[in-house]
Amino acid sequence: MVRVEFLGPIQKEALEVEASTLRDVAAALQSDAEVKDWLENCAVAVNDTLVKSLDTALKSGDKVSLLPPVCGG
Amino acid sequence: MLELFDGPVPTEELLVRWYQEEAGSNYGAYIPFIGTIRDEDGISGLSFDIYEPILESWFDAWQEKATKAGAILKMAHSRGDVPLHTSSYVAAVFSPKRKVALKMINDFVEDFKASAPIWKYDLRDGKRLYAADRSTPISGSGILGE
User: Fold this and answer.
1) Contact A11/A70 with Cβ under 8 angstroms?
2) Is residue B93 part of a domain?
3) Domain membership flag for residue B136
4) Is residue A18 part of a domain?
5) In the predicted model, is pLDDT for residue B146 greater than 90?
6) Closest Cα of chain B to A52: distance in Å?
7) At B32, which CATH number?
8) Run of H or E including A22
9) Which residue of B has its CA nearest to A53?
10) Residues of B in contact with A42 (CB under 8 A)
11) Could you tell me which chain B residue has the CA closest to the CA of A55?
12) Exposed e or buried b per residue across B6-17, where buried means at least 16 C-beta atoms within 10 angstroms of its C-beta
């Protein structure tokens, strides 16, 4: 299981998801009405490193974080 | 050096301390940028969430870039609520020559706006409202929606 965390303004508790790549996480989240609308503008980090491919491999215990649009300063 | 504060950044103390820290370092230029919360659109202030692990790695990558140019960066940002007319963000570049520092403070603040994992909220009528229309998707966003 990987842990999926939602950062900033996404008001949602973390989820545990069965996934061997990020593609599996995408499939799980696309069927979740609470987060579906965030997906198209969220960046994704695996174990606190930003990634850009759905083929990113995952193993049990990994942390996947969703980062919505930012505005510091 | 990256410093985070609960509430406003203590700008005056910080600018003096940073100056003193580098007084003997032989830098010819010290260029700070100070972001102050303006009274606009009926807000009473702004509020911020920060994801620290990625902010730290983003800052470390910039510090490495600065080091290669013979410069150093310092930055401070607020967590939580920050009232009007106080500062939520202070960044500074020290470098031997002013041209390097002027370019770097611009590039650094631009990338900060586009990439630093910080979320801004307007404080209005007792509510904390995500500033969605002023926010920017981080480069590479959207893969989960494909």
Assistant:
1) no
2) yes
3) no
4) yes
5) no
6) 6
7) 3.90.1170.40
8) helix A22-30
9) B143
10) 137, 141-142, 144-145
11) B143
12) eebbebeebbee
**CATH code of A58's domain:** 3.10.20.30
> What DSSP state is assigned to residue A14?
-
Contacts of B115 in chain A (CB under 8 A): 70
Test B140 with A66 for CB contact under 8 angstroms: no
Enclosing domain of residue B69: 2-131
Give dist(CA B7, CA B78) in Å, integer. Answer: 6
Q: Which domain holds residue A56?
A: 2-67
Q: Per the domain annotation, does A72 fall within a domain?
A: no
ipTM: 0.95
Number of domains in chain A: 1
Cβ separation of B138 and A70 shorter than 8 Å? yes
Question: Is the dihedral angle over the CA atoms B4, B61, A19, A34 positive or is it negative?
Answer: positive
Contact present, B11 and B87 (Cβ < 8 Å): yes
**pLDDT class of B92 with cuts at 50, 70, 90:** very high
pLDDT at B109 over 90: yes
